[in-house]
Design goal:
The chain is α/β, with parallel strands linked by helices. Helix 1 (18-29) links the parallel strand 1 (9-12) and strand 2. The longest helix is centred in the middle third of the chain and has 29 residues, at 106-134. It has 2 domains: 9-189 and 227-254, NAD(P)-binding Rossmann-like Domain (Rossmann fold, 3-Layer(aba) Sandwich), CATH 3.40.50; 191-226, no CATH class. It is globular. The protein has helices at residues 18-29, 41-55, 69-83, 106-134, 155-175, 193-206, 210-219, 229-240, and strands at 9-12, 33-38, 59-63, 88-91, 137-142, 180-187, 251-254.
Length: 263
Amino acid sequence: MDLGLRDRVAIVAAASRGIGFAAARELAREGARVFLCSRDLERASEAAEKIHAETGAEVSALQADVTSDEDAEKFVNAARETAGRVDICVTNAGGSPASTFGETDLEMYRRAFELNALSAIRLARLVVPAMREQKWGRLINITSISVKQPIDGLLLSNTIRAGLTGWAKTLSTEVAADNVTVNNVAPGYTLTERQDELATARSRNTGKSKAEMIELWASQIPMRRLASAEEIAAAVAFLASERASYITGVTLQVDGGWVRSLF
């Protein structure tokens, strides 16, 4: 299937590794020109070079911390100055630390809101007005399956990402008439560095090894395995595509059937 992404301009945040990297690579495979960022310029450059070598696409790397107003603006402006516009924006950021109510204080909530909500809202404010003017745009937020079914021990993620989902749904109705779609991709348990970090944290609290924690998570999933980052990226590319032009305001779970709800 031709997704209609050739020559589209995409920016992907926090894309030096994990799901962000996989999303940037998948968009490049579909012919998009990709700008990716990371707080670590060296890692971002390595990621861009690897994607270019695999796909032949034009891929640019920038140093940017998406919790910084200045960095986010610099990231978006670099894409505009080089490619002329931004068609696709994939918001993404690292996850908040595993925590329970008793372990959190108000400052942790503030940091989590900055990381997992304002980082996406900040980028949207920079790209959506121009998308509306050009009458085409895709805003895709990488969130978490916790917005559909909260995960024990991830209080901050459960709280903040759910708020971002409400914001995205509201925004989607405001911009739909301008052919701009706003959707969320909600990964389930995925084999990434972040999941390895969570397995380490859980192993300390439960006495189980990391391998046992990953095996336990896999046993809860009907497909009996964790996702690969590439499987999440495929959903991102589809929602960014011309083929998904009538899909907006949705949270697409990519979880191997882990969530048991009907909606």
